[in-house]
Write a structure and sequence with these properties.
Helix content is 56%, strand content 9%. The protein folds into two domains: 133 residues, PhyR, sigma-like (SL) domain (Butyryl-CoA Dehydrogenase, subunit A, domain 3); 119 residues, Response regulator (Rossmann fold, 3-Layer(aba) Sandwich), CATH 3.40.50. The N and C termini lie far apart (38 Å). By secondary structure, it is α/β, with parallel strands linked by helices. β3, α11 and β4 form a beta-alpha-beta unit. The longest helix has 18 residues. The protein is globular, with a radius of gyration of 18 Å. α6 packs antiparallel against α7, α6 packs antiparallel against α12 and α8 packs across α12. It has twelve helices and five strands.
Length: 264
């Protein structure tokens, strides 16, 4: 099977990782493009004998390391990007990468150690440091938009265990907007398909039209958002989810104060 065919399914997830890593869709996509250009120019740089996604992320790591001394691209007019840049400066890159590779991308400690070129103990230490640093910098009031009661309660427990407050749990677009206006949240966790056949996407668009707020989509239908075309949500979790994945996404969303970036 051609290499391009093997790595194609993993590109949307690499773009997600790159955006979360550098805090900017433009800068993240630039690194992904540099990764693909390097593979096209020299296919032998792609590691042999490893899974396609692991090899792709290893090539991305090389592009990231080569780019590490360049400043993060920040739009001076975008306060969220400015917040991300300031917080990135306070968090060591290896800690940020170790956290995202494990909790968000699902790589094992062994795989993360290989990708980062360090020991497994160092990976664990990096993750612990990243979580401690992020916890010190972020606290939020969270609105949960989810029509499945058990899932909503599970998310509420995760949010509260992280030290955040839950402003409300909405099951429809109308309930979501009422909760949004009653107590403006600092973070929104949103499903796509809601109880009355309304759309979590529409709810998020309406909220973002009023004011910016970080959003994490948690859905069984990721294909509705991971289209490979811009714009896409910065944070997207697929159901059924793992608790560490949600915890990492919440921490990263608050760390970067990043909006969903969907819709026109």
């Amino acid at each position: 099977m051609p290499l391009a065919t093997q790595i194609a399914p993993h590109l949307p997830f690499l773009r997600r990782y790159a955006r979360a890593l550098v805090g900017s869709q433009a800068a993240g996509d630039r690194l992904v493009e540099a990764t693909l250009a390097a593979i096209v120019a020299d296919p032998s740089c792609f590691p042999a004998g490893v899974a396609p996604n692991l090899g792709l992320y290893k090539c991305f790591q090389a592009a990231f390391d080569a780019d590490a001394l360049e400043p993060v691209e920040v739009d001076a007019g975008n306060s969220f990007e400015s917040v991300a840049a300031a917080r990135l400066a306070a968090l060591m890159p290896k800690s940020r990468q170790a956290l995202l590779l494990g909790a968000m991308e699902g790589f094992t400690v062994t795989d993360s150690a290989w990708l980062l070129g360090c020991s497994e103990d160092e990976v664990r230490a990096h993750v612990a440091q990243a979580l401690a640093d992020i916890e010190r910098q972020t606290r939020a009031r969270v609105l949960i938009i989810e029509d499945e009661p058990i899932i909503a309660m599970h998310l509420e427990t995760i949010v509260r265990d992280l030290g955040h407050d839950v402003t409300g749990i909405a099951t429809t677009l109308t309930e979501a907007m009422s909760a949004f206006h009653a107590e403006p949240p600092g973070l929104v966790l949103a499903d796509i398909q809601l109880a009355d056949a309304s759309s979590g996407i529409d709810a998020v668009k309406a909220m973002l039209a009023e004011r910016p707020v970080p959003v994490i989509f948690i859905t069984a239908f990721p294909e509705r958002l991971l289209t490979g075309e811009r714009p896409e949500p910065t944070f997207l979790i697929t159901k059924p989810f793992q608790v560490p994945t949600v915890e990492a996404a919440i921490s990263q969303a608050m760390f970067f104060n990043s909006t969903a970036r969907i819709g026109g």
